[in-house]
Amino acid sequence: MVPPLHRLPAASEVPLRAVVHGGRQRLLMDSPAVSDLLLGALGLMLVVEGLMPLLQPRVWRGVFERMLQLSDGQLRFVGLASVLVGWVLLVIWR
């Protein structure tokens, strides 16, 4: 088995620190890895989503109009397929 290239630390491995915010004491993780990863994923998603309307606005509009014609069941299937493909990519990446 190939070892993973990137491993997020387990919760027990991340040091905690107490901070006072708004009169309440809270524990925060010192490792910003998870928030950095989520922010990076969101940024990448926005870049990919914006490529089609940026480069081919007429084609994108046509695809969008055809998607509006789909039934709820068909849209759910597209959403499910998208979720499954994304999950498989995350499993491969992980």
Automatic annotation (TrEMBL):
Annotated membrane-spanning segments are 37-55, 75-93
Highest taxon of the source? Bacteria
What keywords sit in the KW lines?
Membrane, Transmembrane, Transmembrane helix
Q: One Pfam match, by short name?
A: DUF2065
Q: What is this protein called?
A: DUF2065 domain-containing protein
Organism per entry: Pseudaquabacterium rugosum
